[in-house]
Amino acid sequence: DFQRFLRRVDDITNLVQGLNSTDPAVKEKNIAETEKRLHDQETSKEEESKTVVNRTVINPQASDVANAEAANADGFLAILEKDAKERAKQRRRNEHIANALKEKGNDAFRKGQYATAIQRYTEGLEKLKDKQELYTNRAQAYLKMNEYEKAIGDCEWALKCNEKCVKAYFLMGKAHLALKHYSESRQCYEKILEIDLQKESLFKICMNEVSLEEKRIKDEERAVRELQSGKLAALSVKELLQKLDRPGQNILYYTGGIRLLTGAMKHCTEQTLFRTNNGFSILKDNEVVRRGFCAERKNIAEVDLSVSLLFLWQAVCAGNEENQRLLLTHSDVNAQLPKLLCSGISEIQKETLALISLYSENENGRRLLVRHQDLTKWLQILMTFVNSTDARANSAMNILSDLTEEERFKTQCRVMLSTDVLPLFTQLLTSAKLVNQAALARCIGIMGNLCADVAIRMRMAESKECWQGCLKLVVECFDVGTPEFRDCLFAVLGLMMNLLLESNVIIQDFAVDISGSCMSLLRDKDGRIVTVKAIGVLSRILPASSLAVEVAVKEGLVKKMVKFLKAGGETTSNYGLKTLSICTRSNRQAQEDLVKSDKRFGVLLKLLDSENEMIVGNAAFCLGQCLVVPGAATSLLNSNVVMILLKHAGSDATRTSVQENAAIALGKLCVAEPRHIFQLRKLNGLAILNSSMKYVHS
């Protein structure tokens, strides 16, 4: 009996471990086994409730042991039953959340926001790991992002949840086809027919697609071999253009010819020959080429043709301003450039970005773009490449960085800023872990540069969502701490400093949160740049809210600032003194903290010797504010503070705040401790002080 009891305990232990398994199949199997055992237990209880006369004489001691064993087993099963009910309840809650996240992901997918869709599906899977629809939906989003391996992985997980999932096999077949795994793609489509015979029409379409793709690759390879090995390879630019004028040829013929023409562009002479022999008319006069290049939804042959044309135009326009001008004045090219950037086809996007880079990297090229292109949507379009994990992201950021040098581009950016650009930018800020962090850092820096435009800065500073995104990114960057995230942190702090040149209600509402985030960054042990930027943000956010000042002072801001001022550095001193000036201006605790932290005002006196007028003016201001603290003025009796303040009060500094703050501090010093007047008279300071009163406004 005891051995049987131990076996039951082992079985139940295994069940509990199975219920906690991360494998959906194992988990489902154990749930079913648990429910069966609970059902059997209920049945046995019903049978026990029936009255049965048992006349067997039983050893009382043995009975006690058996009863204890039964009680232990029943108690364990009761706990298991309670646990199962709690798990079922939790599962229902998680299923509700997962369904809501799935709908949010579907909405993002319909809008073309595939990175956001992936994020929502992932969040849903964190709540419910065995929900097949989330795996297949995420796989579909991965396909749109050209992440074919990840799409296959999700399809395999979906099949573990439901081995007869037709959608999983369909998407897996698509992913394998994109990777040119033709055999694996066919196997996936054959599985669809095995599962559901009514899907025969879908099966035939899919299998035909695989066959056409295989044939296309073979035909293209054969056409290219013929072009390269035949007489065409030896033709001049003029002769090649004449061959490409031949109507009625296969699209592969034109693609191969365009590639040969690209290879012929070795010198500026060939570029000139291309232009003088009407090479740019290839798109206008050849209907096959034009139709393939302008197709909204391109097949693989049309993609290859478009990529070949983009390669050709890069070769033709490199370093040739006249060719660049002619290409952009072509109506089809002009209309297609933004569409190609939005195509979602990585090869086309990569070469389109390379072509645009030829223009953006020099002043004349940028002017051509601004003159001939409607750039109102370009900020949004190029910003989407932050989602790319390859070289496209860097190319797009290079172009954006170049375009921000053009005032006309900034003007055009205002048009779509509030409706399209800011929602996308906010989404990137809140999805930092899912995007290209290096590109995100550059994107944030570009938005910071655009803040030089007052209209753009004002709209961004009024965006509640933008501030929320910035704060979320600061927290994430500080927690993760990788070099990529650190670059994002530098950039977002710089952006916040630029936005804080504005003053509005939204900034006032976020002041406590912003200053709190910066206070956390002051504990950073890795880099002074983070600390300096955090102090810079503090110096600009604290004037917006007296509550933020009060909270920051209570958290020890003054002591931290004195510590950083002791370490030195002109930028740190500048921001640090400005921060202390704001705190000591109206907060008594800040004044007392500064007196305690800076013994005999050693740090402030040292800063009063600086050659930087802003540092001197703020140091004098802080000193003047702290002299109301009892004993502060007395602690300076044996110092040369009177001489230093007199020197600045009578100086010819460009900033009148230097003379004003020094004169006020000197006056407060003598009022708080009259013994300083002896030194003042000795230095003939009353006359100097009198002459500096013209700078004092109140």
TrEMBL record:
<dbReference type="InterPro" id="IPR016024">
    <property type="entry name" value="ARM-type_fold"/>
</dbReference>
<feature type="repeat" description="TPR">
    <location>
        <begin position="166"/>
        <end position="199"/>
    </location>
</feature>
<dbReference type="InterPro" id="IPR043195">
    <property type="entry name" value="TTC12"/>
</dbReference>
<protein>
    <submittedName>
        <fullName>TTC12 protein</fullName>
    </submittedName>
</protein>
<dbReference type="GO" id="GO:0005813">
    <property type="term" value="C:centrosome"/>
</dbReference>
<dbReference type="InterPro" id="IPR013105">
    <property type="entry name" value="TPR_2"/>
</dbReference>
<dbReference type="GO" id="GO:0005737">
    <property type="term" value="C:cytoplasm"/>
</dbReference>
<dbReference type="GO" id="GO:0007288">
    <property type="term" value="P:sperm axoneme assembly"/>
</dbReference>
<dbReference type="GO" id="GO:0070286">
    <property type="term" value="P:axonemal dynein complex assembly"/>
</dbReference>
<keyword id="KW-0802">TPR repeat</keyword>
<dbReference type="InterPro" id="IPR011990">
    <property type="entry name" value="TPR-like_helical_dom_sf"/>
</dbReference>
<keyword id="KW-0677">Repeat</keyword>
<dbReference type="Pfam" id="PF07719">
    <property type="entry name" value="TPR_2"/>
</dbReference>
<dbReference type="InterPro" id="IPR011989">
    <property type="entry name" value="ARM-like"/>
</dbReference>
<dbReference type="InterPro" id="IPR019734">
    <property type="entry name" value="TPR_rpt"/>
</dbReference>
<dbReference type="Pfam" id="PF00515">
    <property type="entry name" value="TPR_1"/>
</dbReference>
